[in-house]
Design goal:
This protein is an alpha+beta fold. The chain is built from 4 helices and 9 strands, in the order ββααββββββαβα.
Length: about 130
Amino acid sequence: NEIVVIAGGRVEQIGTPDELYERPANDFVMSFLGPVTRLGANLVRPHDLELSTTPDPGTVAATVDRVIRLGFEVRVELCVDGVASWAQVTRDECERLGLSVGDVIFVRPTPRGRRDLVTPATPVESGRSLL
C-alpha cells in the first residue's frame, strides 16, 4: 500500500508508510508523519536525538528547560541556541544522565536521525497513478 502526501494541491511524496517515515522528501512530509523537533536548521524526530553530558564530536550544547516523565519515556525540553527543542529518552537513560532543569547537556542526531531529504518522484516519473 502506498500513500500520497499532498500539500496545497501539490504531490509532495508517494510511497509506503515506512518509506515516507524513514526517507521523507521534505520537512512537510516529515512533520506530517509524527512528532518532530528542530535541531539547528534541521528537523529531527525527538527519539532520534542522543543526549550526553560530554561535548562529543557533532554535538551542540543545550540547556535542560524541563524534564517530564511520561510512563516508560521521558520528554526532555531543551533550549539550543535560544530555540526550543525536545528529546524523547527512556527512563533509564534519563536516570543515567542525571538530568535536571538548568543542566547543560550535549545533543546530536543518532545515525538514524541523520536524514538526507530525498527528491520526491512525481506520479508520472514514478510510473504511479493517482487515479
